[in-house]
């Protein structure tokens, strides 16, 4: 902007000075010629017409006139030089004569000196305020244009960010359009290829886990039959059957983890009733005491089977790790409230909790915090399955330690809206 203003002033200065000087020279020349060739008895009337119609006033130039120079500007030296080159080097300029403001120029008729006074608005030149105004307008237009261009440039990046966040939450957004500048097309094409590769890897992993889990069911069933028919004593038979049941549970977890959640199966769910059913089913177990604080009429959109699996996994996780020694009773608290358009669920136990630094690691598949949560058997997929299902329902999962002791799982899910 500074370079533009400086260039404009330099380029504009000479033409504007020439225009002002030409106007002054023309007025002085015409006025002098009119006075010189008019009859003496008509000069008074001519001076009156010039003053009333053209704003041009003629005064005799006296030696005792109080003269102040015109305001200096970048144009005045050029105007003086051009006017003096035409009217003579003795031409004087003033901005104030005998306390009368105006643009004053001296001239001669024969041996007599006169002042020609013009209104200042007749001789206009660009002021600093005008340049500042033009610069402000240009700056505003430049900023508007820059904001528009920046939005066009940032739009593909914003779209890329939104798609990446949706994928991180477990969603399946539309692929990025492969249009625009070459760099944007290549970036979007590479991102789409990456998304396709991730989907194939996810699909292959689900197929592998499901295939392995399914294929293990046949030998397990055969082993169960052989244990029943073999002549083992009661203790050995019960131990082997317990091991087989545990293996079967681990296979079920593999299948749950590999099973995709299809949003096409989502329906309106009375979430309050679903949580009460979970609490009622958990309370039927002899060593579990469930306390509830569930708001009424909470509805969400989702798959009820998958959501029940989420809370069944949380109950099982609490059974394994949430007991307080030496008590045999497991205390579970289930709370649900509506906050900022979302259903917020708190599922907590009264166990010993886990180290804060290890909370994030619990969500990784096949991870178990045995040292902090007590020794127990399991595959380490319980919380991973919970997170997977919650993300597919466009929700968020938070793990924390409750005070004074215990472990809490916070789940936030969007409420159902009739126009969804």
Portion in strands: 15-25%
Biggest beta sheet attributes: 5 strands, antiparallel
Overall 3D form: rod-shaped
In quaternary terms, these chains amount to: single chain
Order of helices and strands: HHEEHEEEHHHEHEEHEEHHEE
If strands are numbered along the chain, what order do they take across the biggest sheet? Answer: 1-5-4-3-2
Q: Kindly report the name of the CATH homologous superfamily of the largest domain.
A: Histidine kinase-like ATPase, C-terminal domain
Rg (C-alpha, Å): 46 Å
DSSP strand count: 12
> What is the SS-derived class?
alpha+beta
Work out the helicity level.
Answer: 40-55%
**CATH class wording of the largest domain:** Alpha Beta
Q: What does this protein look like?
A:
With 420 residues, this protein is of the alpha+beta class. Helices cover 52% and strands 18% of the residues. It contains ten helices and twelve strands. The chain has helices at 2-37, 43-54, 76-87, 128-168, 182-229, 234-258, 271-283, 304-321, 370-373, 382-392; strands at residues 56-60, 67-68, 93-97, 100-109, 112-118, 267-270, 288-294, 299-302, 330-339, 342-349, 396-401, 407-414. The strands form three sheets. Strands 1-5-4-3-2 form a five-stranded antiparallel β-sheet. The protein has a five-stranded mixed β-sheet with strand order 7-9-10-12-11, with helices on one face. Strand 3 and strand 4 (100-109) form a beta hairpin. Helix 5 (182-229) runs antiparallel to helix 6 and helix 8 runs antiparallel to helix 10. The longest helix is centred in the middle third of the chain and has 48 residues, at 182-229.
């Amino acid at each position: 902007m500074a370079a533009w203003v400086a260039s404009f002033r330099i380029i504009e200065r000479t033409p504007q000075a020439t225009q002002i000087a030409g106007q002054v020279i023309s007025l002085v020349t015409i006025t002098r010629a009119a006075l010189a060739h008019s009859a003496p008895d008509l000069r008074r009337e001519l001076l009156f017409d010039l003053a009333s119609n053209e704003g041009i006033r003629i005064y005799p130039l006296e030696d005792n006139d109080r003269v102040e120079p015109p305001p200096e500007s970048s144009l005045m030296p050029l105007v003086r030089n051009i006017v003096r080159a035409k009217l003579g080097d003795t031409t004087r300029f003033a901005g104030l004569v005998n306390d009368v403001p105006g643009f004053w120029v001296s001239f001669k008729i024969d041996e007599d000196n006169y002042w020609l006074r013009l209104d200042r608005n007749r001789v206009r030149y660009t002021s600093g305020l005008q340049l500042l105004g033009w610069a402000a307008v240009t700056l505003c237009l430049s900023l508007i244009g820059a904001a528009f261009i920046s939005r066009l440039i940032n739009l593909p990046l914003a779209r890329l960010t939104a798609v990446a966040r949706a994928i991180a939450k477990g969603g399946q957004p539309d692929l990025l359009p492969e249009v625009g500048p070459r760099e944007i097309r290549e970036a979007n094409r590479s991102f789409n290829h990456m998304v396709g590769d991730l989907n194939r890897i996810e699909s292959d992993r689900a197929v592998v886990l499901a295939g392995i889990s399914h294929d293990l069911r046949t030998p397990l069933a055969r082993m169960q039959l052989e244990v029943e028919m073999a002549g083992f004593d009661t203790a050995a038979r019960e131990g082997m059957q317990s091991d087989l049941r545990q293996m079967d549970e681990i296979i079920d977890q593999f299948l749950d983890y590999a099973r995709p959640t299809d949003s096409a199966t989502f329906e309106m769910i009375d979430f309050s009733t679903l949580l009460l059913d979970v609490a009622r089913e958990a309370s039927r177990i002899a060593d579990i005491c469930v306390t509830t604080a569930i708001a009424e009429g909470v509805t969400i959109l989702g798959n009820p089977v998958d959501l029940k699996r989420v809370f069944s996994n949380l109950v099982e996780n609490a059974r394994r790790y949430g007991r307080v020694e030496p008590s045999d009773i497991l205390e579970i608290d289930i709370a649900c409230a509506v906050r900022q358009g979302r259903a917020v669920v708190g599922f907590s136990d009264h166990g010993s909790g886990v180290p804060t630094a290890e909370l994030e690691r619990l969500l990784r598949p096949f991870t178990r915090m045995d040292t902090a949560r007590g020794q127990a058997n399991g595959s380490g997929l319980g919380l991973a399955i919970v997170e997977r299902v919650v993300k597919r329902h466009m929700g968020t999962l938070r793990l924390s330690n409750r005070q004074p002791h215990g472990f809490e799982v916070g789940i936030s899910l969007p409420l159902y809206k009739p126009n969804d």
